[in-house]
């Protein structure tokens, strides 16, 4: 699970649906550091920005979005580019203010103009997803390039993935490599993982291993999993023992794991659809969870037949569920499944996350997943015990009445 990075908007959370389990006890009131408060009160913009972040994130003080807004705005009024982006973040999520994507985009643009490349990166994400207005890939690329050229590794990697996949721009391997190499300067771990995947896809296995080993040395679990999977991804399947279904990976962006996982399967089936094309066929707004019954209906719009299958949340149900996974994978069909995990941003709450099961290795007790949350290639290994703990959901459809182990399968012809 990705660690929350509070200063990067579109990694706010890797999950789609928040399920409230229990109330969180109110924190003891705490005072901000005296020196920081004094500097902020004297008008120092950077101190005001940092104080706003403390109140926003509840670090060393009681969380207070109104105070976060007040101090962030004071810093932004002085032209602080980081604070301008922080204000956009608050409006984007509706923390302390009514949610307003248009205002958020305005602050992101101002942040970029003030020299903060993260503002342009976030603005590009808004255009790519269509949040706050019409989806516009050209504008997304324009602002990502501005951000990347100003030093944003996130933007450079977004461009590399875009040119590699052809999702939003013509596929161009040379451009993918160029932007990936630029991303290496500031986001080396994620860029090394993606560079290794590009090399692997080009048949340059030794170079891929070298890239993944460098990332693994930085303690990247995805890199470690890719090294373990390298030989298996080249093997022919053996029913009952091993299967691997190669499907495209798409990064989910902001809170769009359900539609993105569905799109990975649709593209595997030959459908030319993007994740936001699928999301717009659902009734829930962009940036919110997707009802699985609507994802299945969306697949039908692309002439694909899917079925929802559920298993009980107990040992017999798990055994039946894993048997279905193996049968489907042996037949060359990926399976969409839903997890429940502790929320990374809301202590005491749980969140749902949709992934795609793409393989298994019986001898190693592995299940192989394509996870839309990480940057490409998003491959992940889980043991059977880990899968049993995570594969359960109570919010996969509006009509779900109890926790189960849900799966979306490709219907047989």
Which properties best describe this structure?
TPR_rpt, 17 helices, 3 domains, TPR repeat, Serine Threonine Protein Phosphatase 5, Tetratricopeptide repeat, Cathepsin B, Chain A, eight-stranded antiparallel sheet, Peptidase C39-like domain-containing protein, 413 residues, TPR-like_helical_dom_sf, alpha+beta
Task: Describe the overall structure.
- The protein is of the alpha+beta class.
- The chain folds into three domains: 28-150, Serine Threonine Protein Phosphatase 5, Tetratricopeptide repeat; 175-234, no CATH class; 242-410, Cysteine proteinases (Cathepsin B, Chain A, Alpha-Beta Complex).
- Helix content is 48%, strand content 12%.
- It has 17 helices and eight strands.
- Strands 1, 2, 3, 4, 5, 6, 7 and 8 form an eight-stranded antiparallel sheet that branches.
- A hairpin with an 8-residue loop joins strand 6 (366-370) and strand 7 (379-383).
- The two termini are 36 Å apart.
- TPR repeats lie at residues 189-222.
């Amino acid at each position: 699970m990705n660690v929350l990075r509070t200063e990067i908007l579109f990694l706010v959370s890797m999950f789609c649906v928040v399920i409230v389990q229990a109330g969180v006890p109110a924190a003891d009131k705490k005072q901000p550091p005296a020196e920081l408060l004094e500097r902020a009160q004297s008008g120092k913009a950077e101190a005001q920005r940092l104080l706003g972040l403390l109140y926003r994130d509840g670090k060393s003080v009681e969380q207070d979005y109104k105070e976060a807004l007040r101090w962030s705005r004071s810093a932004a009024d002085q032209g602080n580019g980081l604070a301008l982006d922080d204000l956009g973040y608050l409006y984007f999520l509706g923390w302390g203010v009514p949610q307003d994507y248009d205002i958020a985009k305005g602050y992101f643009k101002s942040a970029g103009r003030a020299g903060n490349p993260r503002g342009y990166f976030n603005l590009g994400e808004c255009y790519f997803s269509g949040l706050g207005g019409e989806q516009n890939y050209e504008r997304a690329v324009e602002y990502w390039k501005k951000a990347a050229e100003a030093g944003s590794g996130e933007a450079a990697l977004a461009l590399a993935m875009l040119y590699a996949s052809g999702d939003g721009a013509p596929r161009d391997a040379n451009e993918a490599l160029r932007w990936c190499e630029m991303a290496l300067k500031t986001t080396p771990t994620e860029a090394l993982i993606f560079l290794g995947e590009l090399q692997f896809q080009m048949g340059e296995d030794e170079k891929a291993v070298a890239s993944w080993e460098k990332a693994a040395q930085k303690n990247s679990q995805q890199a470690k999993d890719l090294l373990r999977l390298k030989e298996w991804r080249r093997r022919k399947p053996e029913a009952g023992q091993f299967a691997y279904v190669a499907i495209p990976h798409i990064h989910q962006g902001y809170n769009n794991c359900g539609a993105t996982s569905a799109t990975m399967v649709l593209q595997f089936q030959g459908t030319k659809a993007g994740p936001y094309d699928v999301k717009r066929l659902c009734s829930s707004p962009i940036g919110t969870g997707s009802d699985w019954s609507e994802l299945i209906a969306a697949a039908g719009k692309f002439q694909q037949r899917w079925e929802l299958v559920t298993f009980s949340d107990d040992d017999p149900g798990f055994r039946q569920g894993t048997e279905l996974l193996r049968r489907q994978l042996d037949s060359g069909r990926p399976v969409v499944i839903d997890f429940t995990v502790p929320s990374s941003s809301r202590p005491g709450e749980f969140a749902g996350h949709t992934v795609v099961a793409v393989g298994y290795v019986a001898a190693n007790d592995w299940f192989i997943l394509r996870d839309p949350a990480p940057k490409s290639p998003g491959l992940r290994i889980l043991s059977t015990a880990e899968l049993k703990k995570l594969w359960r959901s109570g919010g996969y459809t509006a009509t779900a009445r109890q926790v189960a182990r849900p799966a979306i399968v490709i219907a047989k012809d």
